[in-house]
Specification:
Layout: E1 3-7, H1 11-22, E2 28-32, H2 45-49, H3 56-59, H4 64-69, E3 72-75, E4 80-84, E5 89-92, E6 95-98, E7 101-104, E8 108-110, E9 124-126, H5 130-139, E10 145-149, H6 153-164, E11 168-173, H7 185-197, E12 201-204, E13 208-212, E14 219-222, E15 227-229, E16 232-235, E17 239-241, H8 244-248, E18 257-258, E19 270-272, E20 277-281, E21 284-286, H9 291-305, E22 317-322, E23 325-331, E24 338-344, E25 347-354, E26 357-364, H10 367-379, H11 385-389
Parallel strand pairs: 1-2, 1-7, 2-3, 7-19, 9-16, 10-11, 10-16, 11-12, 18-20
Antiparallel strand pairs: 4-5, 5-6, 8-17, 13-14, 14-15, 20-21, 22-23, 23-26, 24-25, 25-26
Helix pairs in contact: 1-9
Length: 400
């Protein structure tokens, strides 16, 4: 009987195994996770769950019984220590498991602060796993002083939650503005004003020199020479792809585990999907860190493992919740040279163009225009920016 092993029990791993069964695969499936809980949603961790608005069980993507009902062997709390592509085996908990095909859905890992600048002190947190957020939540209480390192979406979401919980919040960003890598100055300006309106101290062009304290963090010395008293620190400086196992096994890596358009790695029996995988797209190699990509890429890989030869063509979209603002992003803004601003009442959207071609849209509390933009980008349609900025334009008509 054919045996498929999936390493990484997150969104991609859960989606891949479910799709295998749903598509008629009747062989053996083993889904392996390093964490001790079933596959769960990550986006609510640092928002609804941290705020106490979502119970732990509601985070789970599927009830644990689902895997038993689908005859999927779920091994939790079991980190894989090695892969032998020649023997087609993996090493786990002192034993060796043989596979016919292997899928890597190993996600991504948060960047930590180096220990020599205080990164190992108690009270210093990252935001990635359930354990991370449980530990952070235990330190958060009204009146405490929180330092958020990093002005990307992870850091800004953490700042919003801390502010809502009554903490005194400072955000530092080493670049000259927040969201420098991922968004236009217009979007950055919108969120800077939003956070400042909620009392957050936003410091751009300022980095961390070191954290100070004996066992627990007490203060932070910044690169501008200032020093802050702090009770907890949240490190939101991005993630790296979970490709350590793949590298150790000799698989090709480039900004993650390198795959072809079908999701196959440099070893014909090994596949990859989700945050850990980089793949060809429009003449370049990209890696996407979002729920929608994890699901759709994993499901396509499942079908290709069963013999299909479908190419992955992503339709990227992302979201971020901060205070009472929902940001929805359609497309990828890489290479933009022009921004069209649409502002009608409380809804704002920024439309990214490269020449005359629409690349992406950031929509704040504007779900209708987000959906329109998403459909336009998917169809390869680029409305004239002059039409987009006019409040009187019937946006739906741009789809025709």
């Amino acid at each position: 009987m054919s045996h498929i092993i999936v390493i990484g029990a997150g969104q991609a791993g859960s989606s891949l195994t479910a799709k295998l069964r749903n598509s008629g695969f009747d062989g053996e499936i083993t889904l392996i996770g390093a964490e001790s809980v079933p596959p769960y949603q990550r986006p609510p961790l640092s928002k609804a769950y941290l705020l106490g608005e979502m119970e732990k069980e509601r985070l789970f993507l599927r009830p644990e019984q689902f895997y038993a009902d689908q005859n999927i062997t779920l091994r939790l709390g079991s980190p894989v220590t090695g892969i032998d592509p020649t023997a087609k085996t993996i090493s786990i908990a002192g034993e060796t498991l043989k596979y016919d095909q292997l899928a890597l859905t190993t996600g991504s890992n948060p960047r930590h602060l180096p220990a020599d600048i205080g990164g190992a002190l108690n009270g210093v947190h990252v935001v990635r796993s359930l354990d991370d957020v449980d530990a952070m939540g235990a330190d958060m209480a009204p009146g405490k002083r929180a330092l958020i390192i990093g002005g990307g979406y992870i850091g800004l979401e953490a700042a919003a939650v801390a502010s809502k919980m009554g903490l005194e919040v400072t955000v530092i960003e080493m670049a000259d503005r927040i969201l420098k890598r991922v968004a236009a100055p217009e979007t950055a300006g919108y969120f800077r004003k939003l956070h400042e309106a909620h009392g957050v101290d936003m410091r751009e062009g300022v980095g961390l020199e070191r954290l100070l304290g004996e066992s627990h963090v007490k203060s932070a010395r910044l690169t501008d020479g200032s020093e802050l008293e702090v009770d907890l620190v949240v490190v939101g400086t991005g993630v790296t792809p979970g490709d350590a196992l793949a590298k150790k096994a000799g698989l090709a890596t480039e900004n993650g585990i390198e795959t072809d358009a079908h999701g196959r790695t440099s070893d014909p029996s090994i596949w990859a999907a989700g945050d850990c995988a980089s793949f060809p797209w429009q003449g370049e190699r990209i890696r996407l860190e979002c729920v929608q990509n994890a699901i759709e890429q994993a499901e396509l890989v499942a079908q290709n493992m069963m013999g299909d030869a479908k190419e992955y063509v992503p339709m990227p979209w992302f979201w971020s919740d901060q205070y009472d603002v929902k940001l929805q992003i359609a497309g990828l803004n890489t290479g933009y040279d022009k921004i069209a601003v649409r502002h009608v009442e409380d809804a704002v959207s920024y439309w990214y163009y490269k020449g005359d071609r629409l690349l992406a849209v950031d929509a704040m509390n504007d779900p209708r225009n987000f959906m329109i933009a998403k459909r336009l980008i998917a169809a390869g349609k680029s409305p004239c920016p002059d039409l987009v900025v006019r409040p009187e334009t019937d946006m739906k008509s741009l789809l025709k």
